[in-house]
Protein backbone atom coordinates (compact mmCIF):
# COMPACT_ATOMS: atom_id res chain seq x y z
CA UNK A 1 0.00 0.00 0.00
CA UNK A 2 1.32 3.45 -0.94
CA UNK A 3 0.22 6.92 0.18
CA UNK A 4 1.40 10.26 -1.22
CA UNK A 5 1.12 13.62 0.56
CA UNK A 6 2.13 17.11 -0.61
CA UNK A 7 2.59 19.39 2.40
CA UNK A 8 3.42 23.09 2.88
CA UNK A 9 6.38 23.94 5.12
CA UNK A 10 4.19 25.34 7.88
CA UNK A 11 4.69 24.57 11.58
CA UNK A 12 0.96 23.91 12.05
CA UNK A 13 1.07 21.03 9.55
CA UNK A 14 3.60 19.02 11.59
CA UNK A 15 1.34 17.51 14.28
CA UNK A 16 -1.52 16.45 11.95
CA UNK A 17 1.02 14.84 9.61
CA UNK A 18 2.70 12.99 12.50
CA UNK A 19 -0.69 11.78 13.81
CA UNK A 20 -1.57 10.50 10.34
CA UNK A 21 1.73 8.60 10.02
CA UNK A 22 1.23 7.02 13.46
CA UNK A 23 -2.28 5.76 12.59
CA UNK A 24 -1.07 4.53 9.19
CA UNK A 25 1.82 2.64 10.82
CA UNK A 26 -0.50 0.87 13.29
CA UNK A 27 -2.94 -0.05 10.51
CA UNK A 28 -0.09 -1.47 8.44
CA UNK A 29 1.43 -3.83 10.97
CA UNK A 30 3.50 -2.01 13.59
CA UNK A 31 2.75 -2.40 17.30
CA UNK A 32 1.88 0.77 19.21
CA UNK A 33 5.40 1.21 20.60
CA UNK A 34 7.08 0.72 17.20
CA UNK A 35 4.51 2.99 15.52
CA UNK A 36 5.24 5.68 18.11
CA UNK A 37 8.98 5.40 17.39
CA UNK A 38 8.32 5.55 13.64
CA UNK A 39 6.08 8.62 13.99
CA UNK A 40 8.54 10.36 16.35
CA UNK A 41 11.38 9.83 13.86
CA UNK A 42 9.13 11.30 11.15
CA UNK A 43 8.29 14.21 13.49
CA UNK A 44 11.99 15.02 13.95
CA UNK A 45 12.59 14.86 10.22
CA UNK A 46 9.77 17.09 9.01
CA UNK A 47 10.35 19.55 11.86
CA UNK A 48 13.89 20.00 10.52
CA UNK A 49 12.51 20.37 6.98
CA UNK A 50 9.89 22.94 7.98
CA UNK A 51 12.23 25.00 10.18
CA UNK A 52 15.48 24.88 8.23
CA UNK A 53 15.15 23.65 4.63
CA UNK A 54 13.54 26.73 3.06
CA UNK A 55 14.29 30.44 3.31
CA UNK A 56 10.76 31.27 2.18
CA UNK A 57 7.53 29.36 1.66
CA UNK A 58 7.90 25.94 0.09
CA UNK A 59 6.42 22.48 0.08
CA UNK A 60 7.68 18.94 0.46
CA UNK A 61 6.46 15.47 -0.52
CA UNK A 62 5.85 12.49 1.74
CA UNK A 63 5.60 8.93 0.41
CA UNK A 64 4.39 6.11 2.68
CA UNK A 65 5.02 2.56 1.52
CA UNK A 66 4.26 -0.72 3.28
CA UNK A 67 5.12 -4.36 2.64
CA UNK A 68 4.79 -7.55 4.67
CA UNK A 69 8.20 -6.97 6.25
CA UNK A 70 8.64 -3.21 6.64
CA UNK A 71 7.20 0.30 6.56
CA UNK A 72 8.99 3.16 4.84
CA UNK A 73 8.36 6.90 4.84
CA UNK A 74 10.23 9.00 2.28
CA UNK A 75 10.44 12.78 2.47
CA UNK A 76 11.52 14.72 -0.62
CA UNK A 77 12.19 18.46 -0.65
CA UNK A 78 13.87 21.13 -2.77
CA UNK A 79 15.30 23.16 0.08
CA UNK A 80 18.88 24.31 0.64
CA UNK A 81 21.70 21.78 0.11
CA UNK A 82 22.58 19.98 3.32
CA UNK A 83 24.99 17.20 4.31
CA UNK A 84 23.92 15.42 7.53
CA UNK A 85 27.36 13.80 7.84
CA UNK A 86 28.85 17.23 8.52
CA UNK A 87 26.31 17.82 11.28
CA UNK A 88 26.70 14.71 13.43
CA UNK A 89 25.55 15.15 17.00
CA UNK A 90 28.37 15.25 19.56
CA UNK A 91 27.78 14.85 23.30
CA UNK A 92 31.17 16.43 23.97
CA UNK A 93 30.30 19.46 21.86
CA UNK A 94 26.97 19.80 23.62
CA UNK A 95 28.63 19.67 27.07
CA UNK A 96 31.35 22.05 26.01
CA UNK A 97 29.36 24.53 23.91
CA UNK A 98 25.68 23.73 24.46
CA UNK A 99 25.47 22.98 20.72
CA UNK A 100 22.56 20.67 19.76
CA UNK A 101 23.55 20.51 16.07
CA UNK A 102 22.62 17.10 14.61
CA UNK A 103 20.53 16.00 17.61
CA UNK A 104 17.38 15.53 15.52
CA UNK A 105 19.07 13.17 13.10
CA UNK A 106 20.66 11.27 15.99
CA UNK A 107 17.18 10.70 17.43
CA UNK A 108 15.95 9.46 14.04
CA UNK A 109 18.86 7.01 13.76
CA UNK A 110 18.10 5.64 17.22
CA UNK A 111 14.37 5.22 16.58
CA UNK A 112 14.48 3.86 13.02
CA UNK A 113 15.79 0.50 11.85
CA UNK A 114 17.33 2.28 8.88
CA UNK A 115 17.74 5.95 7.97
CA UNK A 116 18.89 6.86 4.46
CA UNK A 117 19.82 10.27 3.06
CA UNK A 118 20.15 10.82 -0.70
CA UNK A 119 21.25 14.14 -2.22
CA UNK A 120 19.90 14.45 -5.79
CA UNK A 121 21.43 17.75 -6.89
CA UNK A 122 18.80 19.78 -8.75
CA UNK A 123 16.16 17.21 -7.78
CA UNK A 124 16.69 18.13 -4.11
CA UNK A 125 17.08 15.89 -1.10
CA UNK A 126 15.46 12.62 -0.09
CA UNK A 127 15.25 11.09 3.38
CA UNK A 128 13.99 7.58 4.07
CA UNK A 129 12.95 6.21 7.45
CA UNK A 130 12.48 2.43 7.60
CA UNK A 131 10.94 0.34 10.37
CA UNK A 132 10.77 -3.46 10.20
CA UNK A 133 7.58 -5.26 11.17
CA UNK A 134 8.16 -7.75 13.99
CA UNK A 135 6.03 -10.82 13.39
CA UNK A 136 5.00 -13.06 16.26
CA UNK A 137 6.17 -16.67 16.36
CA UNK A 138 3.48 -19.21 15.53
CA UNK A 139 3.49 -20.39 19.16
CA UNK A 140 2.48 -16.87 20.24
CA UNK A 141 -0.48 -16.81 17.87
CA UNK A 142 -2.32 -19.88 19.21
CA UNK A 143 -3.97 -20.42 22.60
CA UNK A 144 -1.95 -22.64 24.97
CA UNK A 145 -4.60 -25.39 24.98
CA UNK A 146 -4.31 -25.73 21.19
CA UNK A 147 -0.53 -25.95 21.39
CA UNK A 148 -0.78 -28.76 23.97
CA UNK A 149 -3.54 -30.65 22.16
CA UNK A 150 -2.66 -34.02 20.66
CA UNK A 151 -2.56 -34.00 16.86
CA UNK A 152 -5.51 -35.65 15.13
CA UNK A 153 -4.93 -39.23 14.09
CA UNK A 154 -4.23 -39.72 10.42
CA UNK A 155 -7.06 -41.22 8.39
CA UNK A 156 -6.29 -44.79 7.41
CA UNK A 157 -6.05 -45.74 3.75
CA UNK A 158 -5.24 -48.78 1.67
CA UNK A 159 -3.38 -49.06 -1.60
CA UNK A 160 -4.64 -51.77 -3.95
CA UNK A 161 -4.64 -52.48 -7.70
CA UNK A 162 -7.47 -50.96 -9.76
CA UNK A 163 -10.33 -53.37 -10.37
CA UNK A 164 -13.15 -53.43 -12.92
CA UNK A 165 -15.56 -52.29 -10.19
CA UNK A 166 -13.57 -49.04 -9.86
CA UNK A 167 -14.14 -47.98 -13.47
CA UNK A 168 -17.20 -45.78 -12.92
CA UNK A 169 -15.65 -44.12 -9.85
CA UNK A 170 -12.49 -43.35 -11.85
CA UNK A 171 -14.51 -41.74 -14.67
CA UNK A 172 -16.39 -39.61 -12.13
CA UNK A 173 -13.14 -38.61 -10.38
CA UNK A 174 -11.64 -37.47 -13.70
CA UNK A 175 -14.78 -35.44 -14.47
CA UNK A 176 -14.89 -33.81 -11.01
CA UNK A 177 -11.22 -32.89 -11.22
CA UNK A 178 -10.98 -31.72 -14.85
CA UNK A 179 -14.52 -31.26 -16.17
CA UNK A 180 -14.26 -32.29 -19.81
CA UNK A 181 -10.74 -30.94 -20.29
CA UNK A 182 -8.73 -34.10 -19.49
CA UNK A 183 -6.58 -34.86 -22.57
CA UNK A 184 -7.09 -38.67 -22.54
CA UNK A 185 -10.75 -39.03 -23.52
CA UNK A 186 -10.88 -42.77 -22.76
CA UNK A 187 -10.88 -41.90 -19.04
CA UNK A 188 -14.47 -40.61 -19.36
CA UNK A 189 -15.77 -44.05 -20.50
CA UNK A 190 -16.19 -46.66 -17.72
CA UNK A 191 -16.30 -49.48 -20.30
CA UNK A 192 -12.97 -48.41 -21.82
CA UNK A 193 -11.44 -48.26 -18.33
CA UNK A 194 -12.73 -51.83 -17.70
CA UNK A 195 -11.12 -52.92 -20.98
CA UNK A 196 -7.81 -51.28 -20.00
CA UNK A 197 -7.89 -53.04 -16.60
CA UNK A 198 -8.54 -56.42 -18.27
CA UNK A 199 -5.71 -55.91 -20.73
CA UNK A 200 -3.38 -54.94 -17.89
Report on the architecture of this protein:
The structure is a single chain. This protein has a 5-stranded antiparallel sheet, covered by helices on one side. A hairpin with a 3-residue loop joins strand 2 and strand 3. It has helices at residues 14-27, 32-53, 91-97, 103-111, 138-141, 144-148, 167-178, 190-199, and strands spanning 2-8, 59-66, 70-77, 114-119, 125-132. The radius of gyration is 31 Å and the shape is elongated. The model has no long low-confidence stretch (mean pLDDT 86). By secondary structure, it is an alpha+beta fold. It folds into 2 domains: 2-136, Heat Shock Protein 90; 161-199, no CATH class.
User: Count of helical segments?
Assistant: 8
* SSE string, helices as H and strands as E: EHHEEHHEEHHHH
Distance between the termini: 58 Å
Radius of gyration: 31 Å
Percent helix range: 40-55%
Read across the widest sheet, the strand sequence of neighbours is: 1-2-3-5-4
Mean pLDDT: 86
CATH topology of the largest domain: Heat Shock Protein 90
Pick out the low-confidence regions.
Answer: none
Number of strands: 5
- SSE class: alpha+beta
Indicate the proportion of strand residues. 15-25%
Main sheet summary: 5 strands, antiparallel
CATH superfamily heading of the largest domain = Histidine kinase-like ATPase, C-terminal domain
CATH architecture of the largest domain: 2-Layer Sandwich
> What is the CATH C-level name of the largest domain?
Alpha Beta
Amino acid sequence: MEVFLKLPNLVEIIQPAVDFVYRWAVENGLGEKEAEEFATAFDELITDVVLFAFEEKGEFSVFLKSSLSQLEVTVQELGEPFDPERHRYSVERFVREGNFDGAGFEIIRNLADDFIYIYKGRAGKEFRIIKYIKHRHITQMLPEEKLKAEPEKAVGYQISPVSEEDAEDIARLIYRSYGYTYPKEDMYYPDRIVKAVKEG
